[in-house]
Design a protein that fits this description.
This protein is α/β, with parallel strands linked by helices. The chain has 13 helices and seven strands.
């Protein structure tokens, strides 16, 4: 949500009006989607402001937001960042507060822990982390008498291999794994291909060109085949796969129709054979997605 740097125009190549986002939010909420994930850098604060307006009268809203620490540690920055996010969100606390990057991990986790102690955050999460950074975070918070609630990493059919050990560690230690870019910004939605690519002057257009689409065409074709079998939109197959991988999918919604499709899709139960086929098509494509901000 929002405009400016890291806004919808820059990332997706298209801007969405606040009216459209409001309608989308209402539809999603009516379908039971009450948890919303944002960050201070999404639209450079605009996303939090819009979400704050939308959830102002929603007592059951679960809000997750993230702070991007400076590469050089600045004492008090994490605490001040949360206070600024709370002001934009119009809330006294957030349900889940993330370090968007594991910079100066121990120092910033100690500050995040103080936010829990002050009641401004209920839980702490770590995003874009390696297995070793995850283990360090668990140990650091344990010394503070707290538990790391969740990990939020890139997870899709074209990136899952890199997350295998992290996912296993999370499951063994009761840490919730949230996956973002499940659809690779739409590349796995079934609505784009080499003949109908992403907008060129957009973040996703620059990272996923026609040559990549050609390589994953067999995977897209199989996703569509499964979508027809289960009578759902193609975009719901990778989401179902993620859920059955014990991952909580973070899905971007820009239209009311997306929310309706998502509500229908979460009911899918793929067979073991179908899951294996999806993963094999992905592996055989030779495409491995890794964003510039990932370590």
């Amino acid at each position: 949500m929002g405009t400016g740097i890291n806004g919808s125009k820059m990332v997706f190549g298209k801007s969405y009006s606040e009216e459209q986002l409001t309608e989308t939010f209402k539809t999603a909420y009516s379908k039971g989607f009450t948890m919303w994930d944002t960050a201070e850098v999404y639209g450079m604060g605009n996303s939090e402001k819009i979400l704050g307006k939308l959830t102002a009268d929603k007592e059951d809203a679960v809000i997750s937001t993230k702070h991007l620490p400076s590469k050089r540690y600045r004492q008090g920055e994490t605490v001040r960042a949360l206070e600024a996010s709370l002001k934009r969100l119009g809330r006294k606390n957030v349900d889940l507060y993330w370090l968007h990057q594991p910079y100066n991990l121990k120092e910033n986790l100690i500050e995040a822990a103080s936010c829990v102690e002050s009641g401004k955050a209920k839980n702490i999460g770590l995003s874009n982390c390696s297995l070793q950074q995850l283990k360090t975070a668990v140990e650091c918070l344990d010394h503070s008498g707290l538990k790391l609630y969740g990990v939020q990493n890139h997870f899709s059919l074209l990136s899952a291999g890199r997350q295998k050990d992290i996912l296993k560690f999370c499951h063994n230690n009761n840490i919730v794994f949230y996956g973002y870019m499940i659809l690779e910004q739409g590349a796995l939605s079934g609505h784009y291909n080499a003949s109908h690519p992403f907008p060129l002057l957009s973040g996703r257009g620059l990272s996923f060109g026609k040559s990549r689409f050609k390589k994953i065409q067999p995977l897209i074709d199989y996703i569509r085949l499964l979508a027809d079998k289960y009578s759902v939109d193609s975009s719901q197959i990778p989401i179902a796969w993620a859920i059955q991988s014990n991952v909580v999918p973070i899905v971007g919604l820009t239209k009311s129709s997306h929310a309706i499709k998502l509500a229908d899709g979460v009911k899918i139960n793929l067979s073991d054979t179908e899951i294996n086929n999806l993963e094999n098509f992905a592996a055989n494509s030779g495409v491995i997605c890794k964003s510039s901000w990932e370590g």
